[in-house]
Design goal:
Two copies of one chain form a homodimer.
Chain A lengths: L1 H27 L11 H13 L5 H14 L5 H20 L12 H5 L17 E6 L5 H12 L2 E3 L1 H26 L3 H10 L2 H13 L4 H16 L5 E4 L3 H7 L5 E6 L2 H12 L4 H23 L11 E4 L5 H11 L5
Parallel strand pairs in A: 1-3, 1-4, 2-3, 4-5
Helix pairs in contact in A: 1-2, 1-3, 1-4, 3-4, 6-14, 12-13
């Protein structure tokens, strides 16, 4: 009984779709206007089959889109409006059925929750800050865009050079602490310091690095310290950070952030590099770009185990050459729904 | 004389930057607050060097960002405001100098002109239409997003299935024309048609295809016909088109369009495919995705000579899994600045 009801529903819907096509055809008169060709019975049968048998029917959607496309060419406004209204009503009914005409979601709830530009799904927590992580291919003006964006939004800006300065301060503080503790613990320490002054700079450097990084290679220790700094900063301030795998670092710590990859075709980046670095050979600039991209990719994969530059790893990728620097800033602001 | 003036200007700017750091440091009191360490003379010297010698100085920008970052931590609001205002004034003066502190543009004017979401640079022509080209990796819900977007914007929707229907109509019309012309030109044609009915369906099909596609392989002929259709449609209507290298086709014809690539991590797409197609093995779904992606990549590269899915080839790439279908539609609308 219930099945017969559903069957009747589908037949009814199929008839409405077919009739809509007929009306659209009559209103345009174009020979291309008619979407359903052949006998009405056969078409209705096929529509019912699509409605019942096929889940996620791309074909059914195509049938509907085809009819709607024809309707939109109707010149008479009241007719067009009436037929579009019938089309929308059919679409709504399809969606309300449990025929799975409704799309299957692709969302990764865990990732989406960390994406602050995802406003309708995401309720920002009380102490949550706006953090924008920019990865970029070499000479794609990603740094310029990041700096201009931070400046425009009046929020902090971190890139390798800024972070280096911060790491230096952290290192110096650690050195001082270390020396102070040694002096306290070891009465012979003063002598050891004197000794250290006598050994070569290189050796002294090695000793100092060992004490700073607990024996880790400098790159790993820097990564560790930068990660720690960014995770702490994310608790207290808004910022833009360029590079340093910040997206992966924040994702690992479940800190909401917007991740964006900026690139442009290689030839344009080479030309950009020629201008910024005063390189006079295009070939040389292309080589430099390829070298730096390889370095970036290695660094990113080493610390994140993800593929650098693959669009599925970021919320969004932007081609800076099709916007330019200022408009890239505007586009990012529109996406995260922030105005000045 | 003029040189001395510029030199003095730089010295003056360097002093202002240094003094700003000092003031910021005094207002925070933090040991990490002071950005410039060492003698004032040495720092000023270094700043002047950055201002004069290095074009596009990333270091100079880093120095400024570091000072600004400290200023933003100042708790006293009037002090913070005063120092930020001095910071902005320094930034403006730097930009107004011809010291090339200003960023070097990466924009490709030709591409940017074709990008309708690039509003501040782009003045739409009188008869220009909103055309959104969506490329997508397999099972990234790119089709769902495209359909929902077209529906939301009340504009036409074309994908492979819709376009197949249109191609069929075009083919039928061509067949009819061809037969009519043959009948007119050749009195023996009626006999030939009779003959054709006697040969196998396969042979008849080959003959018909040859007449339709002028001897081109079907794939090439379809590509040609779809290209022709899209270029014509772009003159009269707004639309969303999914796949079919539409971005490259429209770019070749200098038709403004917004090009977007939709993807998601492969494992999520496999799970999506399992749900939509009722596949029960994750491994099988992963294989299917890899197969279809390879097909898409081959098709795209064959007709465009560009790399499919490389972010530098589109205006923008979107990770559907970090937005979901509905929010992806919203994000695209925000980017192109269209509301319902």
């Amino acid at each position: 009984m219930a099945n017969t009801n559903i069957e009747n529903n589908y037949k009814n819907l199929a008839n409405r779709i077919y009739d809509l096509d007929t009306k659209a055809y009559e209103s345009t008169g174009s020979s291309l206007g008619r979407h359903f060709i052949g006998s009405k019975e056969k078409n209705i049968e096929e529509l019912v089959r699509l409605l019942t048998a096929k889940k996620q029917s791309y074909q059914l959607r195509a049938e509907l889109a085809s009819v709607a496309n024809v309707i939109r060419t109707i010149k008479d406004k009241p007719t067009r409006k009436a037929l579009l209204s019938e089309y929308n009503s059919i679409l709504q009914e399809l969606k309300s059925h449990d025929t799975a005409f409704e799309s299957v979601e692709i969302i990764n709830e865990k990732v989406a929750e960390l994406n602050p530009s995802n406003f309708s799904n995401h309720k920002p927590a009380k102490n949550e800050h706006l953090i924008i992580c920019i990865s970029r291919s070499h000479s794609s003006a990603g740094n310029d865009i990041g700096f201009a964006l931070a400046d425009d939004l009046h929020i902090n800006y971190y890139d390798i050079d800024v972070l280096k300065g911060i790491l230096n301060s952290i290192d110096k503080e650690k050195d001082t602490q270390w020396h102070e503790e040694k002096f306290k613990a070891d009465p012979n320490y003063a002598k050891a310091v004197e000794m250290a002054h006598r050994i070569s700079d290189n050796q002294a450097n090695q000793l100092r690095e060992f004490s700073r990084y607990h024996g880790l290679p400098k790159e790993d220790a820097d990564f560790f310290n930068i990660s720690k700094f960014l995770v702490e900063a994310a608790k207290t301030e808004d910022f833009v950070v360029v590079g340093r795998c910040a997206d992966a670092i924040l994702a690992n710590s479940n800190i909401p952030h917007f991740s964006i990859y900026i690139t442009a075709p290689a030839d344009l980046r080479a030309k950009h590099l020629m201008k910024t670095q005063g390189i006079d050979s295009f070939k040389k600039a292309m080589r430099e770009i390829s070298k730096k991209d390889t370095m970036h990719a290695r660094y990113y994969t080493k610390y994140t185990r993800r593929v650098w530059g693959y669009a599925g790893n970021y919320d969004l990728c932007l081609n800076s050459s099709s916007y330019g620097i200022d408009e890239s800033v505007e586009v990012i602001k529109r996406i995260i729904q922030k105005s000045k």
